[in-house]
Amino acid sequence: MKVLTDMLPAELAELLAPLGITVSESRRIFAHHVQHGQRNWQVRDLARGKIERIRQVVETATLEVADRRTSAIDGFKKYLFRLHDGHLIEAVRIPLLADKYSVCISSQVGCALACVFCATGRLGFHRNLDTWEIVEQVRIIREEADRPVRGVVFMGMGEPLLNYENVVRAGRLFADPSGLAIAGRAITISTAGVVPAIRRFTADALPFRLAVSLTAGTTTKRKSLMPVENTWPIGELIDAVREYSRARKDERVMLEYVAISGVNCGADDAAQLVELLRGIPVRFNLIEVNDHTRAFLPPDEHELNSFRDALQALGQPIVRRYSGGKDVQAGCGMLAATAG
Ligand code: SF4
After folding, report:
1. Where are the beta strands (DSSP E) in the chain?
2. Mean pLDDT of 63-88
3. Do the beta carbons of residue 296 and residue 263 sit within 8 Å?
4. How, if at all, do strands 149-154 and 100-104 pair?
């Protein structure tokens, strides 16, 4: 038995063709469940006999919403989902302007990469999410939303590029007209720096955007913050980013930088970054660290502004990225899959 949202519309059509189901009927079934959020099998103009045959080979599956919390500060809404094996994951609904939402979703249960400033990293790794478990996060949130969901970011729990197949398949389903019809450019896949998978992402010429978490300008400093540096050092990472950039002529590479007071926001850090990124068109996103243990603190306005000023030598857009929902532990680096 196959789970419907583990398949792309074309794969469903292929599975159902031997049962006498046409491509157009198959697309209708897909849209009925995924796009229109129907839980029943009363698909318009489809004979009961056909539906019974389909149900012999396809099932639907979903996640249990264990908790929902909305920030009183900015309306960010955090969802806690319980999986069929009891594991918990989180996703965040993000208001965009006044008329739409983006959704930040998880790709794994926990994370093996153990970035020192991240609550998910402290959980360790349990397993990859199946495609349908990734898809359901967005589908459920979209179903409950009072505005359309126009974007998806893979920046929740887990390292998306260590679950490459399922993440890319979910992205394709989000973008499919019979799926959620979200523009490919509004789907962002973030990585802490899994170099072979970045190269694969480039070679696959996917319609999605890539974001790379950099967070330090030297290998020594990066090693102390992001152990992934021990496997794929910053030199290799920047080479892979440069190759991606060359392949995507019209796109700036999004670089994420978790700013930590007294650690990576000094004039020397800025100078190293300027040198490192020379010649690569990037958009440099500054995100202030959110560490509930208080081991790492965000820079104050003066420290952040000085760092930002020093980075102007890059000659590239530098954006202070808002990380919302902090009162419900929904901010970047805060997802720990607890109801508290
Ligand atoms: S920041 Fe991302 S890659 Fe690093 S530990 Fe957290 S979830 Fe994993």
Report:
1. 2-3, 58-59, 64-70, 77-82, 88-96, 100-104, 108-110, 125-128, 149-154, 187-191, 209-213, 253-259, 282-288, 318-320
2. 95
3. yes
4. parallel
Q: Are strands 282-288 and 253-259 parallel, antiparallel or unpaired?
A: parallel
Q: What is the pLDDT of residues 154-195, one digit of tens each?
A: 999 999 999 999 999 999 999 999 899 999 999 999 999 999
Compute, in angstroms, the gap from residue 157 CA to the centroid of ligand 1.
7
Which residue owns the Cα nearest ligand 1 atom 5? 121
In ligand 1, which atom is closest to the CA atom of 121?
5
Ligand 1: nearest atom to the Cα of 213: 1
Domain range list for the chain = 2-59, 64-328
User: Residue 322 has which token pair?
Assistant: 């808002």
Q: Is 120 in the pocket of ligand 1 (CB under 6 A)?
A: yes
pLDDT for res 297: 95
Tokens encoding 334 = 């805060």
115 lines ligand 1 (CB under 6 A): yes
pLDDT digits (tens, 9 = 90+) for 77-133: 999 999 999 999 999 999 998 899 999 999 999 999 999 999 999 999 999 999 999
Q: What are phi and psi for residue 128, nearest 5 degrees?
A: -75, 150
Instruction: Please tell me the least confidently modeled range out of 31-40, 93-102, 122-131, 238-247.
Output: 31-40
pTM of the predicted model over 0.70: yes
Contacts of 94 (CB under 8 A, 6+ apart): 76, 101, 102, 103, 104, 153, 324
> In CATH, which superfamily holds the domain spanning 64-328?
Aldolase class I (3.20.20.70)
Q: Residue 43 Cα, ligand 1 centroid: separation in angstroms?
A: 41
Which residues, listed in sequence order, are joined to residue 3 by a DSSP beta bridge?
A: 59
Does ligand 1 have an atom closer than 6 angstroms to the CB of 245?
no
Task: Please report which confidence band the pLDDT of residue 321 belongs to, taking 50, 70 and 90 as the band edges.
Answer: confident
Report, as residue numbers or ranges, the catalytic residues: 90, 332
Spacing, Cα 119 to ligand 1 middle (Å): 8
